[in-house]
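The instructor's notes for this session suggest beginning with a concrete chain rather than abstract definitions. Hand out the sequence below and ask the class to guess, before any prediction is shown, which regions might be ordered.
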Amino acid sequence: MLQVTDQDLTSFNTLGLRSHARAFVRCESADQAPALSDLADHYQNVFVLGGGSNVVLAPELDCLVIKVETSGVRLLSETDDAWIVEAQAGERWHDFVEYCITQGWNGLENLALIPGTVGAAPVQNIGAYGVELDQRFHGLTAWDMRDRRLVDMSVQDCGFSYRNSVFKQAEPGRWLILQVRFRLPKAWRPVLDYPDLQRHAVLQAAGDRVTARQIFDAVCEIRQSKLPDPAVLGNAGSFFKNPVVSAAVYERLRKEHPDLVAYRQPDGSFKLAAGWMIDRAGWKGRHMGAAGVHERQALVLINGGGANANDIAALADMIRADILARFGVQLEQEPVTVA
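After discussion, reveal the predicted structure:
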């Protein structure tokens, strides 16, 4: 039996924003999906909440908030060249990655310490240190809240792109992701393209004998040195996407800023480091009331205490306007705003 309550959501989002839901329900089993659709008929809007790590919650939410709290991981099948591993949507992402490595199912180590849940990971198509989720993705099962049916979706069905998917583009509350499956290769090869990993002393010393566990530990160490712990200082990780620009725009910017940080893409475009631009514009460590920019990582907006969504939005708008004026580049917000 589903129980709907009102709920303070301040501790349910990693930014620690003051927020309150008038209708809140927990999803603890995939079997509850049909009942959730019936319940959703009584509300104008629905929002599915995972770990709260990639959202900006308004002070008052009138929608039905579904908090996904399912758990479980299993080896679904095994082929000659891969393990197919399935996790319930409510599993904590970092714990899932570590569990896979403990079992010898390597391939997700570069994605260590990313906050949030397994079910939220495909929505954002998370990625870090040279690995994107869609490169390890095998499929998922979702409940279509509108059409009341289970749907198995392949990588093609999910429409993955940079920090994007069909789930992010669909109307809010349309999809309730229940299980996610990953294809983890037996012929594992380390991904060490990023400079931070190439410079890491342990990984350098390991050379060709580097292990997935060593990469996992190194990624954790690097992320902890750069990003604040949400339990200590409210944040949603990277607040802006790294913008992708044409070669012509990149050349213009490089002439104006010889130390511009950018990464060439397979199609000839360039991904710019948004954090570098924000830092160059002088925003690192600046505050506007309770909202601010982290002192060590300009890509991270923080809640210094007592901030709400309006405070974060005002700061983000000022940063976007400044970067557009200085560089002619439009920054796009990464976390989803829930009003």
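Then share the key points. The radius of gyration is 20 Å. The domain at 5-68 is CATH 3.30.43.10 (Uridine Diphospho-n-acetylenolpyruvylglucosamine Reductase; domain 2).
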